[in-house]
Specification:
- Helix content is about 50%, strand content about 5%.
- By secondary structure, the chain is of the alpha+beta class.
- It has 2 domains: about 110 residues, Glutaredoxin (3-Layer(aba) Sandwich); about 110 residues, Glutathione S-transferase Yfyf (Class Pi), Chain A, domain 2.
- The chain has a 4-stranded mixed beta sheet, covered by helices on one side.
- Helix 1 links the parallel strand 1 and strand 2.
- The termini are far apart.
Length: about 240
Amino acid sequence: MIDLHFSATPNGQKISIALEEMGLDYRLISYDIFEGDHLTPEFDRINPNHKLPAIVDHDPPFGGEPHAVFESGAILQYLADKTGMLLPDDPRARSVALQWLTWQVAGLGPMGGQASHFRRYAPEPIPYAIERYSRELDRLMQVLENRLGQAEYLAGAEFSIADIAIWPGRSAAGVVGIDLARFPNTHRWYQAIAARPAVQRGRSADKAFPDKYMQLNARLSSAQWSNMFGDRMHSAVPGRP
């Protein structure tokens, strides 16, 4: 059994989709990040960075005590190594899959997150920040489009954790102004993955994005802002004032 500490965001759906694709038993433990559920000392022991998702594997492949894993890319690779699934056996294809996984967690994800923040949450518009992150996100989308014009999936012919890492964020692309119709290869890839039964289970009602996480012009209360971006988020890390 795996405990999935989950918030209904693209990062959370990466892991719920992977668990469904791999047929692993898991227990969903949902957190409301607007309400600060992730800022407790108990969760600090699972993820010292206080971000979601995280997992606790009660039957780790190397034996011993339950094993916690945080950071979505690390979780995906851990699960692929545990099951021998969704990461190619061929060394060249495996390397390609891990490159695209890293590209998502180091580039596409953070740039999309910053574009979303300055478009949706900034108390007042900051044109430079909006333009900087939106243009970089658009550039990265073209990188993705070009790759999917060369191969069926990110790693080549096989669906892999690289596709899982990227796909949920593209399902929320409209929130930051990305029109998938501009990217036909990406749209073809997106639709093919959306039709997979395990993907549908991994984003079913209890794992779907709630409306309050999808607001185009979000207005947070002072408490919600503190939980997401402010003092309470920062002070949750031991040693921080």
